[in-house]
Structure formats: C-alpha cells, structure tokens
Protein: Dyp-type peroxidase family
Amino acid sequence: MNAVTAGETIGLELDDIQSGALHERPSPYVGSYLLLRIDDRAAGRELVRRLHPLVDSGRPASDPIHDAWITVAFTYHGLQALGVPQDSLDSFAPEFQQGMAARAAELGDVGESSPVNWEKPLGTPDVHVALAALSPDAARLQAVLEKVRRAHHELPGIELIWQQDCYQLPTGRTSFGFKDGIGQPAVEGSGIPTSNPKEKPLKAGEIVLGYPDETGELAPMPTPEALGRNGTYVVFRKLHTKVAAYRQYLHARAASREEEALLGAKMVGRWQSGAPLALSPERDDPELGADPRHHNDFLYGDDPRGFKCPAGAHARRANPRDALDHDGSVNVRLHRMIRRGTSYGPMLPEGVLEDDGIDRGIMFVFAGAHLKRQFEFVKTQWLNDGIFIGAPADKDPLVGANDGSGAFTIPRTPIRRRLQELPPFVVTRGGEYCFAPGLRALRWLAELET
Structure:
C-alpha cells in the first residue's frame, strides 16, 4: 500500500483501526486493565495471534452495544520482546521509547507521585502488553476476559503481572462527584458526529497515524508502514484521588453547601451535573448537564476575563477552545486528544470528610498521534503551568502538580477571590506510554520471523 501524501483527502480505513481509539466507552460500563510480560518471543507472537480476533475495529456496528471492547497495546519494551527490528524500534516517537517513568519529572510526577512510589510493575521494563476490556455489564465482561485468559493462560513465557478492575460509580460520575467524558473531539472520517457544532472535527491524523493532521502534514509514523499505519499512541495513568482532602478544602472555604458547590464548579469549569459554567455560570442546571446535544455547545471567547468560567479552571485549561485565538502563536487544535476515563474503587460516601484509607480514583487513558504536542504539552504547559493564562505560579486546581503552595483565582466584581495553599488532590500511582497498532499490524507482529 502506498503512503498517503500530505494534503490528500481520504477516508479512514475503519476496518483496520482498533475501536478504542475512536469509540466512546459504553455507559454504564464495567472494565478491566491487564498488563502482561513476555518472557518467550515465540509465545509473545502466539499471544498476539490469539488476541487479534478479539479486537474490534473502528467501523460503526449495526448493534451499538458490543459484547465488550478489547484494546491491545504494547510498550517499547513489549515490541522489543516480540523481536521488532531495532531500526523499526528507533522510528517510534522518542517519548515512547523513553517511557513515562523516565519523563516523570518533566510531567510533574514528583514527590508522592514519583515513580519510586508507583505501584509495581508500573513504570518498569516488565510491562510489555496492555489490554483494556470494557463492557456494558459484568457478565459480558467476564465472558470476554475468559477469552483473554485462555489466550495467555496456556502459553509458558507469558505472565499476567497486573490487573485493575473499574466500573461506573452508581452516580455515573467520578470520585470527585463530577460528570465525566464530556467534550471529546470529533474525528474527521470516523462517522461519529461532533458534540460541539461550534468546532469542526479534527483531522484524522491528529489521532490515527498515516493521515494528514491539522498542519496538513503526516505525523512521523513508525516503520515499516505495515506496523505504523492506522496505529495510535496510548497513554494510560492510574490516578489516585484524594476525595476527602478535596471536600475538606472546599468545606473550610465555604459558608454553605451551595458555596461549596460553586467553588467546586469554578475549579472544574462545570457543575457536578456536567452543566458548563460557560452556559450556566450562576447555578447548576442538571437538565443541561444531561443533554448531550447542548452541554458541550459553547466557546470561551465571549468570556475573556473568566467571569463565567475562570481561565484557570480544569476544563478550560485542558481545552481552551477559542480563548487563545487572540494569541496567534497557539493553535489549540494541535493539542486536542481522545480521553477515556474510567473509575476504580468505591465512592467515598456523601458528606464524609475523613479519608477511609481505600484506594479510589481514575484510570485515565489518552489516545493521539503526537505524544509530545498532545498529552505532554497539555500536562506540562496547560495543567502544570499558568504562563498561558498570565498566572505562572498557578497550576490546575484539581489535577495539577500542586504542593500546598499554589493558588487559584476566581474573577469577580468588585474583588477577585484567590484560593491559596492548594494541596495535591490527585496522585499518580503509575502509568505507561503504549502503541496500539492497527489490526493488520497485529498480524504483522504475530508473523514476525526475526
């Protein structure tokens, strides 16, 4: 197959793209993330051959509810273990080759979030294969996990080394209490409509390798083309949430439950229902929050000073939309990516302010064609820094690398409000940079003879 030339308009080869890169997770959902180690090269290739038929493609199905969605991805060490030739390994993005743990300081994973404190084996060379299985219910999940178990269980030289189960909380929200998964970019050619009619779909090459991106060019693609084409880089992070500390912080700075809710909304950029401050700045609007046709239909350009939604709020930092259009040096569309968050651990009961010692949080997954200018740029320049909003010392109030000395500004008249001494509310427990090949590339890996 010939390489696609920059600027050429083509359709996505949906039959060759893993569905997890393009399709939303089901709701409600249950799921499991598994990490495997390959100790025997031949067994590793046989594992890939067995997993191949379990992976769904990105083509829209006539039945929108699959039994389960399986995504298969590999770390740099995993591709090495499979025997991918060195010249091919050298063609992958430098960040992927180094791995997340090696880039922890730059990402703000320091102190409690440092790799020395990560769950083993996360961040170690032992992690080779990452599997994500998501399903609408537990019975169908168990059925597909049994297929995965059979694929690796009888192969000497393949070890299951880590597993994290996840499920949608009864509230349908994150452990912090906020509706999640809103604001995903649409991808040109995917057949999935945009949720924000004010924003056109992203060029396919921003998410899937082998197609022109927003610059009109092709992203650097691993070689050979049989391996790189229709693949995507996947970032996953296990993030422990300090829910009690978050509630204590708001409780100490608010005179009422209503003010607590408002402060929380100002920090996040949305009310807990999912209603955006940009459309409902004064009070929560659960009906709007539940409306997928309207809860993402907004921009920030009419609120330059952040009176409705603070410039430093989490949602506005992660996706400034048109708020930076006055600054010709920033093209927000170059930093968009697919986000897939799932919850793990039980809810901290409503109203409880003391930590119960139970691990809970978010398995956060990002997919895109550019590790450095998508995930790493957003994490370092927008979430962990405030230069772009004129507040260099301010980090994202919810997920930024705060250490107790940070602040968050809420614009208002006549005097702004400044929240001081922001502690860390999210702790990184580990993560990996992975590559999710296309379905043909999975066959290529299974048939390696090096």
